[in-house]
Design brief:
Two copies of one chain form a homodimer.
Chain A: E1 3-5, H1 7-21, H2 25-40, H3 51-59, E2 70-74, E3 78-82, H4 89-106, E4 108-116, H5 123-131, E5 135-140, E6 147-148, E7 162-166, E8 174-178, H6 185-194, H7 214-220, E9 223-224, H8 234-250, H9 257-263, E10 272-279, H10 289-302, H11 318-330, E11 332-334, H12 336-349
Parallel strand pairs in A: 3-4, 6-9
Antiparallel strand pairs in A: 1-11, 2-3, 4-10, 5-7, 5-10, 7-8
Chain lengths: 359, 359
């Protein structure tokens, strides 16, 4: 059965774990905030559930728990940050804060991060810009290739997400937060669990042929790029995935995963990279004009004639905004599997388990 | 039969037409260059073939042939340009030149354009940045909605393309140039011409239901967003199309097409908007490092195991680079339909027809 846990208790739990790991308090507080924000937004795959991977990296010696995060290069509108081999949330938050400060001062700011790790949900960084009245962009590379380019038979990129957020007035922000793959591994697991076949175009085998059996798909772990098949223009999703890799990995000089072993043999760190951009609408338009026009566009989309009256037309960010309201009120639903992860991680580092005892 | 026309002759033909229209020579030269570049790159739909639309706009009084193009707002790293109601190529070229100059000086430059029109192929602007050693981004709105959001039954956006280009070293540039729709109208026409059914997910009817008959699809002209169906994640393509609209239309204060009639009743101009970004890799890395790492990524993609040995793995921009080499050597193939368009446009404005007489 799923348990509901208040966001604050989840924050205390994560802080206790990171404290036990030896993460400096300031870095831990930021990491906790980004992770719980993901859970509050309903992006369950990228919040507390990621503890399993983070703990695995730590136990394998692939994660610096007290990294030195430093600005390596800087100009009034750009910067490069080195993440020191730690988790991605803290250097990414520093990076977007820096991009926001530059955009507030100059109109635009672009900051890239190298030598980092998984940073959670891409959207939470784009929304940091929105809270400052700016447009925000956030992209990241992924340490493990899982997505197969059009016409290829092997994965050459991660799910390489891109997030884009923009401030509205009376409406909640526009917030697109998407993997450039057709679906994530999680959708294969759900189909396998439910005993359903998957549509042709979600996953392929070792020869690039579409799979419809979710169990086979999970064995191969070869996802497709958005579009799914060449006939449905998967080359566009592939192009977007490569664009994300260029911004997130090549621009900061992080490691392109398929070449990591040959270029840095024996390196323990995955050297993941990220990219952040903040852009001030007031550099282009009068105060409030951008937000008013975006409101009109969002209203027009909500008012668009639906194909099925029972299924209204949504705007990117709508489901997450609804999840935040519901979860701040009722708590964050955690599955038994996630509670087990937390239990195991606590046991492994001596942190108190604040979730299962009291729920 | 298709005729081959040398790029230079096509340039002279277009210059003669724009001269007869009364377009100032400097603006005409730039417009010609962008259009012929599209044809050279094999993007036949966005070069000389667009003359039909441009002439229609002119005859309907919707196009200013001698527009005043001016910088409305400017900072060291941003600018807003007003296109004066003319074709998009000239203000867009000015905009990317400005973005490039700012990025060369400061690391990054973002320029938006309002009160413009169709600007041809998105990719040719992104490549202007690459020729200066920079990363380039180019997006545009479209005056006529044709793409239906997920769960909707009516079109709310144009094909809203995005282009992203980046400089490599030994390889030709990475250049993604894609509509955010699954396919363009042109693919429906090809299927109708060939008597083939179209895949479910390319187009829908007035109730949002997938069509497989290309003739019906052409009657409705309702395309889908990349992904094609909700099950294949069309909400991602829809989100990308909305992102392009926010950057291209809302940011510069151009007209969001579905609201144009109600907000500016009787306005003759379509008030299309565009967005351009240039970013200097040298703000983040040492000279040549970005290009070298991008080369390695491109080489790895070309070397990826193909699903079918007869169909190698491509990188965005490969087909266009090949087309340029072939068409600079052998001329640009123009179909009888395109030659007819040129003939009619010449007849309508008194320009000499330089293509059919001498071919």
């Amino acid at each position: 059965m799923t348990s509901r846990v208040a966001a604050d208790r989840l924050r205390r739990q994560l802080a206790a774990i990171f404290g036990a790991w030896g993460m400096p308090a300031g870095q831990a507080a930021v990491t906790v905030e980004r992770m719980v924000e993901s859970d509050l937004r309903g992006v369950d795959s990228h919040g507390v559930a990621m503890l399993a991977l983070y703990d695995e990296l730590r136990r394998e010696g692939r994660l610096t728990v007290a990294p030195e995060v430093r600005v390596v290069r800087e100009s009034p509108v750009t910067a490069l940050i080195d993440g020191g081999g730690g988790l991605g949330h803290y250097p990414s938050t520093r990076a977007m804060e820096l991009a926001v400060a530059k955009a507030m001062a100059a109109g635009i700011g672009a900051v890239a991060v190298r030598n980092s790790n998984h940073y959670g949900a891409a959207g939470v960084y784009a929304l940091m810009a929105v809270r400052a009245g700016l447009i925000g962009v956030s992209t990241t590379g992924v340490h493990r290739p899982a997505v197969v380019p059009t016409f290829a038979a092997e994965p050459m990129f991660g799910t390489n997400p891109i997030a884009f957020a923009a401030p509205a007035g009376r409406n909640s922000p526009f917030c697109l937060d998407m993997a450039t793959s057709t679906v994530a591994i999680g959708k294969l697991k759900l189909a396998a669990f439910a005993g359903r076949v998957i549509p042709e175009g979600w996953a392929v085998d070792d020869r690039g042929r579409p799979l419809t059996d979710p169990h086979q798909a999970l064995r191969h772990r070869h996802l497709t790029f958005l579009g799914g098949t060449p006939e449905m223009s998967s080359h566009k999703g592939y192009g977007l995935g490569a664009m994300v890799e260029i911004l997130s990995t090549i621009l900061p000089g992080a490691s392109y995963a398929p070449l990591r072993q040959s270029r840095r043999p024996g390196a323990a760190r995955h050297d993941v990279g990220h990219f952040f951009l903040a852009l001030d609408p007031k550099a282009f338009r009068g105060e409030g004009e951008f937000e008013a026009d975006l409101d009109d566009m969002i209203d027009a989309l909500h008012a668009a004639r639906p194909a099925d009256p029972a299924e209204p037309v949504l705007v990117a960010g709508d489901p997450e905004t609804r999840a935040v309201a519901e979860r701040e009120r009722d708590g964050i639903p955690l599955s038994p599997a996630v509670l087990d992860i937390v239990r195991a991680v606590c046991a492994g580092c001596g942190a108190p388990n604040l979730l299962t005892e009291a729920t």
